[in-house]
Design goal:
The protein is an alpha/beta fold and 215 residues long. The protein has a single domain (5-37, 54-208), classed as Rossmann fold, CATH 3.40.50. 27% of the residues lie in helices and 23% in strands. The protein contains five helices and nine strands; from the N terminus they run ββααβαβαββαβββ. The chain has helices at 14-29, 54-61, 81-88, 102-112, 144-157, and strands at 5-6, 10-11, 71-75, 94-99, 118-122, 135-139, 162-167, 182-191, 201-208. Strands 1, 2, 3, 4, 5, 6, 7, 8 and 9 form a nine-stranded mixed β-sheet that branches. Strand 6 (135-139), helix 5 (144-157) and strand 7 form a beta-alpha-beta unit. Helix 1 (14-29) packs across helix 3 (81-88).
Length: 215
């Protein structure tokens, strides 16, 4: 494994984080994008929809190399927190959210349709062509077998370097072992409100370079 920089462990108080998230959601989407519900697709390996706090997104996405031609894919976008962060932060390029739950996808599509740089798709990421994407965000959206199938697909279809951010990969990191072309850029932990005393949420930023890419 290549050398990497380490994120500073970060935490926020529950009240301040929830208020910050709400205000940022309202500014872009006109509604709260926090969801506390069970997935309807557990049978196919999907996890419960979980909105990433904005302060975590600032740390994980804020310093990435987005440009005018960048294409970010949020896998399991839920109601669209990552999409709202992308818009609110003024990041260049475009962002696509893919969501298996058609109801959540419809909600994300409803508020985001006024932003031309945002696209929302309902369906499985395993059915989505991946060649166009330069960046991928995952907040532990599915079980390990589905993650492995997604990584296999990404490796087959990527035409250039891809930066992949995996939040809450505590139990998923073995899926990346012994895969060629991957480099760990950063890793660290976040302590989220309500989880004090539990194992912190680990996150890793990786870069995949296919053999055919010119870098």
């Amino acid at each position: 494994m290549s050398a990497c920089t380490t994120m500073t462990d970060r935490s926020r108080s529950s009240d301040s984080m929830l208020d910050d998230d709400l205000q940022r959601d309202l500014a872009v989407a006109g509604r709260s994008l926090e969801r506390a519900e069970r997935t309807r697709h557990a049978a196919v390996g999907a996890h419960d929809p979980t909105a990433t706090p904005h302060f975590v997104l600032e740390d994980l996405l804020g310093g990435l190399d987005f440009g005018a031609d960048s294409q970010l894919l949020d896998v399991g976008c839920g109601a669209g927190r990552v999409l709202a962060y992308f818009v609110g932060a003024g990041l260049p390029g475009c962002v696509t959210g893919v969501e298996l739950d058609t109801r959540l996808a419809a909600e994300a599509k409803a508020w985001s349709r006024r932003y031309p740089q945002v696209r929302v798709l309902a369906g499985s990421v395993l059915d989505l062509p991946l060649a166009a994407y330069t960046h991928v965000y995952l907040f532990n959206p599915f079980d390990t077998p589905v993650l492995e199938a997604f990584l296999d697909k990404l490796e087959r279809e990527a035409t250039g370097p891809v930066t992949l951010v995996h939040m809450s990969d505590n139990g998923e990191w073995p899926a990346y072992l012994e895969r060629s072309g991957w480099t760990v850029l950063r890793e660290g932990t976040f302590e989220l409100p309500g989880e004090e005393g539990d194992c912190p949420q680990h996150a890793t930023v990786r870069r995949f370079v296919p053999k055919t890419a010119c870098v």
